[in-house]
Amino acid sequence: MKKVKKVNNFGDPVFHIHNHFDDKIATLPFEWNCSKKIIKYGQMLFVNSTYVNNFADDENRIVVSRVPTAKNGKDYIQKICEYWHSFHPDIALWDWSRQDIIEFVRLQMVKESTSSPIAPLYACHALKNYSMFVNQSWNQHTQGILPDGFQFNINHQTRRDIMEPLLLERGLTYEEWQDGDSYGMIPLPIASVMLANAVELLESKEANAAFSFFSVWRRHRVHPSNCFWKQSGSKLDRLQRYFRDRYSENLLAIDKDFGETFQEAGLGDLKKLPWKSVGGLSDFCKKLMKASLTILLLLSGFRISEIISLRFCDYEKKNGEWIYEASIFKTHEGLRVPRVLHDLTGLAAKCLQDISYLDPEKYSLSFFHRGFMEGAATAALQSGSDMQKLELGNSSFSIKTVSTWLNDFYQNITLKLFPNLKKECEKVSPHQCRHTWAAFALRRMDGNVEERIREHFLHSSGSSMTKSYTKLKLSEAIKNSLEEGYSREVVMRIAKTVLSDRFTGPAARRIIKAVGSISAITPEELDEKVREISSTVQRFSATEWGFCVFFKDSEKTSKCYDPVSRLPDIDGGSGPTICPTCPNGMHNPLQEKNLIRVGIQHQHISNTHPIKAIGKLSADIVENIKKRLEGK
Length: 632
Known about the structure:
This protein is mostly helical.
């Protein structure tokens, strides 16, 4: 039998790894400051990590879902190995004490700094990654997969022990440091302002003019410089030429098309183009791209890497919705989730599609393409080979470039309009947006959320997408943290009996009774009461027909109780016909309107259905809804 040649071998100075999407090969050098024996161990730890999941075949091929993520994981392992070589070269990992592990991780959590007397700390996700590799080494050594490994796991208490001395000298608590993680949430009021700024830009007259310009250009295909007064021989742009020649025989077809298209778009009052040159239009289109990215990140729940991979040709447009025709790669194991863009996210996608000299679907352009730049127009007027080169190499911006755009939009648009927001939030990042999206989704029935955002999440497809996406893509820790934060907020609002909120139902009455009279207690005592009550809430969820405030030890009284699992099926078993009779339910004025609509529908069924038993069921539902609305 012919011997198979191995692509990667433990001890090699370089590993070759394949990207799952396109099978492109990247190299990972192992030029570490440690012995060959320790490097070989680090390579084994890397190959058996969740980023790789062992060699893919007999040739020792390494296949990863994202090369940058794999490189990041390798960097953490390098830190472990170089520390091992420097501080404990003659001691096996298994012989490290718990204190040795704590000291190692604590040292890695402090950033190098020459300008600050107290060096800044890395964010919480760095601690989680170190913990993951330490725990992996223990687990796989005890299973016989690795020749060595730590004998102590890093649990929650150990992580706290690692960080608290560092946080104490910086005047922070462990909880404050966790909340300040770079993956934390953009404050909802600031996210709302950013969205309002982005939507305003996409719905502006100038944006409408840009969409009209590109649609006309794609029909006539002239060099774009001939369309602007600053670069044309006549010193008039195409719109000005239309008004000059519209009643004469000299009117060119392209000028006529410009004039008529702008008028049909409601831009009849524009007598000239808003931009003096191709560069001016390109600069404005980049602003539109940044605004569209802001909307997509905050209201879709997509990761920045997923947004970068989206292409217009992958979507089918139906009734204003963008429905993804293929499946999206999610993990190395192949979890795939459906993608739907609607309402504001659909508006953003449509904007990106409409600002291109090229046909976005014909040339497989990604959402964040370069099709609005003069080079794209020039290539479109040239031979097919140039078009192919543009399509394959230069048609989209890199993830590194696009990742900076959200903060660019915040700094240059939002903060210029509202500079006082900088006190609350100095900068924003794409990583924060998934948590912000989830918080918006949780609050989709809250009267305190701006109307346009609430409409977005109340959309029929949006609601189902919200549920499936939250279930698949947010960890239990994140979801529970968001629910806990929101439940504390709502309990406080109920305690203060805010008139505009007006929560009604048995859960609200239970909270009011637990708080007692707030006039007789201090603000500090009220905060303590709210924390105490919130700690008894095990789940807090919002639906179109009400809030579920599931208190601990109330399983059997829940109307969605599942006798098989002996747990309430809050996510799958709730409904407008079940929840109104549940002692864990309450509603606000917005949800009250939905309950009334459900009641009217069932009243009609009760009055008209030919089968009396079904009519009786609907009549009972109407009666239960009436009781809930009457506060019984």
